[in-house]
Every structure is written in C-alpha cells, then in structure tokens.
Design brief:
The complex is a heterodimer. Chain A is of the alpha/beta class. Chain A is built from eight helices and nine strands. In chain A, helix 2 crosses helix 3 and helix 2 (about 15-40) crosses helix 4. Chain B is α+β, with helices and mostly antiparallel strands. A three-stranded antiparallel beta sheet of chain B has the order 1-3-2. In chain B, strand 2 and strand 3 (about 75-80) form a beta hairpin. Chain B is elongated. The termini of chain B are far apart. The model of chain B has no long low-confidence stretch (mean pLDDT about 85). Classes of the chains: A alpha/beta, B alpha+beta. Chains A and B meet through helix 1, helix 2 and helix 4 of A and helix 2, helix 3 and strand 3 of B.
Chain lengths: ~325, ~120
C-alpha cells in the first residue's frame, strides 16, 4: 500500500519537477537563514555564521540532486536527458544526420521489400484457402531415375476421377505463342491444366489405372494430402511419358505446390518396389508425416458420384 | 583531535527523522537536522542537505505531512509533522532496530570462553 502510494507520488512528482525544485530552493534558503539566526545568537560574527551555516548544509546542488532522485523517477529522467542530448548533437551536425537517416531509410526499405517477397513466395503460400495444402503432383520414372516428367492426359483424367487423396485435381499448361511473325510456327507447345476447386481432402488411395494399353492391369498407388493438386500432362496419347510397361516403372509424387519448382524432392520418400501380383503397388512415393486414411475403392465416374466421394473424405485439421 | 564521525547507515536517517517528529511535534528541516546532531552528540556525520531527501521520501509514503508556516522569529519555513500512519510505522521500525541492536550487542559480546563452553 505504502509502496503503491509512493509510486503514485513519484509519478506526480516527475511531472511537477519545476515547482518542487522551486519549493526546495525556498526551503533550503530558509534553512540557511534559520542556521544563521541560531549562530548569531551564539555570538558569532555575521560572516562566520553564514559560512558555517552553508558548510553544515553541504553542497546545495548535491542536496537538490538527492531530493530529485528520492522523489521522482530517476531512471526515466536519465533516459530523457540522454534523448535530449542525442537530439542536440543531431541538430548540431545536420549533414551527418541527413546521411544517417537516408542510409537507414534505404536499409529498412530494402529489407521490407525482400521480406515482402519472401513472405509472399515462401511463408504465406498460395492464395487459396489452406494454400499450404496445395500440392504439385508429378510423374517420376523410378527405373530410369527421371523426375518431373509430364503426365499423359488420360492419366490425369483417371487420377481426377479416381484418386481420392485429393479434393480435386487440376492441371496446367505452358504454351508458347508467336505474336509477331505469321510464317513462324509456335515453338513446341505443351499443355498443362490447373484446377479451380478447393474442397478439403485428406485420404489415401490405391487406384486401378487403365490408361494406355501398356498399363492395363497394373496398379499405381499414391498417398498424399492437399487441397488442390495439379498434374502435368502431355496431350499426346501416342507418346506416353512413361515409355515402358506403365506403372511398374512409374510413380506419382506430390509436392507442396509453392515449393515444387525450387525443391522438387523435399519431403518425399520412395518405398522399395514391390514385387508380385497386379494387386501390389509397384512404386510408392508419398509425403512423410501427412495424414492418411484407410484405402477404399475409388468411384468410377466423374461428376455427382465424385462429389459424393469428396464429401465422405475424412477431415484432418 | 576529534574522533571520526560515524557514517549514517542506509535507512537510519528516516527512522531518526520519524522519531524526532514523534517527540518534538511540528518542526522544520533545519530544526530536525539540529536535533539529530544534538542527540547524537555530534557523533554522526550528517550532511544537513540530505535531510530533505529523507523528508520527501517519508512524505511520499504518507508517514509525515508538510505545511508552510512561520517560525518563532516570524521566519517563513516548511514545517513537518508525523501522521498516524507514520506513528505506526515508527513503532515497527523501532522494534526492528532494537532487535538488530540486540543481536549486534550479543555478537560483539561473544568471547572465546562462550564458544569453548
């Protein structure tokens, strides 16, 4: 209680410094007069009495300093004093001050710009709801150790219809156009698609693939998690991107879409190739530490049935 | 040659001021300082200016109150007097000091015979 009262008194004294100083000055003057008076009574000379009174009072400035420290907020006062000093020095050297301000402004500006870019590219993720769950799906040829190969469109269509690991799948394309010269043909256009839906999903799937004849009867498995996945695909059916016997040599990997172009294999692990029957997955590539759900038969049809499936997908928060 | 005066221990001055005011009633800064010097028999090194820091501390704690008035010789001065809370506080502090003084007395009276037995 007493400490609280003292703190309040200190704060109020801090704001009344000038008046309190004047009050103390008056009090110290009275002190000297009282001392002089008493000494005179004891028969000292007038000069001697004053000298003696001043000596026994001690240094006036020291007394005032002590008084200020006892009554106010000395730490805050010291900081304010330092600040005042700093501003005086800055005002005294305008050129140096200008240079320092400019250098600081440039430094802060550059830092802000870089961080804004970094934040947009790596931290905030893609501008979709739960953008961090958007994945990039790609084809890998495990035997030939080829990564990020294109995906055939029928593959994509099948995945989209049957892979329940994703709320939705989409693909995107790069295309080259010739805008200036009529005679020149566009340079090797390729096609990709990008999806637009954003249903939440999280599941695992083992989906039968029936795309090109070479792959009939083989099985691919992918385990992944995400919201929108994109699949690269090649339009041409005549040139399947996995050139030999389909899924036994290929795998699908999923990457967070925002990181995919820069770190294609982070967070992925290839499992040993399984051997034996058709029912065994041939190659697995999956995201570590992402939630999976029990395998379930995939719906065969795109459309209402597919949406139903998505609604049944378990949610992981 | 006079003996070297004692330095005041931290916190002693506040108790001295409180006790002086409790006994003397209303008094100005100079009066308090003189009284302490007299009672100590000039054994204590009192820088009279420091009394005002002590007075403002006690005032902020609400243990003493201050009022401008006039002295017996019609001189303007600030008069201090102890409050009710100050009296209570003085009792507490006095008890503490007595205990400490007792302990110091016993410590310094300790002789080797006491330890051996």
């Amino acid at each position: 209680m007493s400490a609280m009262r003292r703190l309040l008194a200190r704060v109020s004294a801090f704001f009344q410094g000038r008046e309190l100083d004047a009050d103390l000055d008056e009090e110290l003057a009275a002190h000297v007069e009282l001392a002089v008076e008493e000494n005179l009574k004891q028969g000292m000379s007038a000069q001697e009495t004053r000298r003696k009174a001043l000596v026994s009072l001690g240094r006036k400035e020291a007394a005032k300093e002590l008084h200020r420290d006892s009554r106010g907020l000395p730490a805050l006062e010291a900081i304010l004093q330092d600040l005042r000093f700093a501003f005086r020095i800055l005002a005294k050297r305008p050129w140096l001050t200008t240079m320092v301000v400019l250098v600081l402004a440039a430094g802060i500006g550059v830092n802000t710009t870089v961080f804004t870019l970094f934040n947009a590219l790596y931290i905030r993720g893609l501008p979709f709801p739960d953008g961090n769950r958007v994945l990039f799906v790609e084809n890998n040829n495990l035997t030939k150790n080829q990564q990020r190969m294109r995906t055939s469109y029928p593959d994509f269509a099948d995945w989209r219809a049957e892979v329940r690991a994703f709320a939705d799948l989409g693909s995107f394309s790069h295309a080259a156009f010739n805008l200036s010269d009529d005679s020149a043909a566009p340079a090797s256009p390729t096609t990709r698609f990008v999806s637009s839906t954003s249903r939440r999903f999280s599941a695992a799937i083992s989906s039968p693939k029936r795309t090109s004849p070479a792959r009939t009867g083989s099985y691919c498995s992918a385990t992944a998690s995400g919201k929108i996945a994109t699949a690269e695909t090649r339009k041409s059916l005549t040139k399947p991107c996995v050139s030999t016997s389909g899924c036994t040599r290929s795998s699908v990997s999923c990457l967070p879409a925002s990181t995919s172009p820069l770190r294609p294999s982070s967070g992925f692990r290839s499992l040993p190739k399984a051997t034996g029957s058709n029912a065994t997955p041939a190659g697995w590539v999956f995201l570590d530490a992402l939630p999976t759900a029990p395998l379930s038969p995939a719906p065969r049809r795109v459309g209402p049935a597919r949406q139903q499936t998505a609604a049944r997908v378990p949610r992981y928060e | 040659m006079s003996r070297k005066k004692l330095d005041l221990l931290q916190g002693t001055l506040d108790v001295m001021v409180l006790q002086t005011l409790a006994v003397m009633g209303s008094l100005h800064g100079y009066g308090i300082a003189r009284r302490i010097e007299q009672i100590s028999g000039n054994e204590v090194l009192l820088n009279q200016g420091t009394i005002y820091a002590s007075l403002v501390r006690l005032q902020q704690r609400g243990w003493i109150s201050a009022k401008w008035g006039t002295s017996a010789n019609n001189r303007k001065a600030k008069f201090y007097s102890i409050t009710k809370r100050g009296t209570k506080q003085l009792a507490v502090e006095a008890a503490d000091w007595k205990r400490l003084a007792g302990v110091m007395g016993r410590m310094l009276a300790l002789s080797s015979e006491d330890v051996d037995s």
